[in-house]
Amino acid sequence: MRHHIHRIRQSDQQTKRKWLILLSSITILLIVSLWVIYMRAVVFTGSDKNAKEDVRIGFWPVFKNGLTITGSSLGKAFDNIISDMPAIGRRTTTIENPK
Length: 99
Hints:
single chain, mainly alpha, 3 helices, flat
């Protein structure tokens, strides 16, 4: 393993970039896979055994609701930042040097 890492370090920039993209992609896939497995195991469990009907929450509806809530929160945050911009400009003070 050390020899392989040393060989990558000694290679040109294009090879380093290829390895960076490859390893980043593998890491992202691993993290997303673990997240989906976790969500299926913990969040999307069936209802109580004594219940008359099985109520399961689907992955995509929960994902859609999460994106909707996150998008609206980010939209409100950006609206607040933009609406405060003129106020920030009014609060600045100009100091002039005496002659």
